[in-house]
Amino acid sequence: MKPAKKPFVVEIKNRRRLSRGESSIWEKVDLKAAGNLVAAEQVAEEDDAAVPLRP
């Protein structure tokens, strides 16, 4: 005769975890400032190319 198995209760607990903050690879980079810097460099290069060189 097999021994009787004891009944058991499974508890499911709700986790009160802080919501996961969305992290980005660009988190600490100011993309707007970087874009402005690139635009300023392009304008400067265009201005330099437009000025004829004196011999």
Evaluate the radius of gyration: 33 Å
List SSEs in N-to-C order. H
Number of E-type strands = 0
Arithmetic mean pLDDT: 79
**Overall form:** rod-shaped
Q: Give the biggest beta sheet.
A: none
Q: How helical, in percent, are the residues?
A: 25-40%
Strand content: under 5%
Q: Report the uncertain regions.
A: none
Alpha-carbon distance between the two ends: 110 Å
Tally of individual helices: 1
Structural class by secondary-structure content: mainly alpha
Folded structure, characterized:
With 55 residues, the protein is mainly α. It contains 1 helix and no strands. The chain is rod-shaped, with a radius of gyration of 33 Å. The chain starts with 30 loop residues before the first helix and ends in a 5-residue tail after the last helix.
Task: Summarize this entry quickly.
Helix content is 36%, strand content 0%. With 55 residues, the chain is mostly helical.
Write the layout of secondary structure elements.
Blueprint: H1 31-50
Could you name the key traits of this structure?
55 residues, mainly alpha, 0% strand
